[in-house]
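To: structure desk
From: M.T.
Subject: fold request, one chain
Message: Could you run this one when you get a chance? Sequence is below, nothing fancy, just the single chain.
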Amino acid sequence: MKKGFFLAVALFTFLFSFAQQTFTLSGTVRDKKTGETLIGATIVLKANGTYSVISNGYGFYSITD
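Reply: Done. Structure tokens follow.
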């Protein structure tokens, strides 16, 4: 009885852990020569689909799945 319960809990935990995988990618876009932040830059990520975002007024961007 205890082995069956433990197995069920372990299986549920294993399956649940794969269902909740998310990521966040964030940063600041800067000009390589001047170091100035780039406002309105488009950032495109191609991983398990295509994600795109535009940097804000401070050059900051954040992509979350």
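Reply (cont.): Helices lie at 2-19. Let me know if you need anything else for the meeting.
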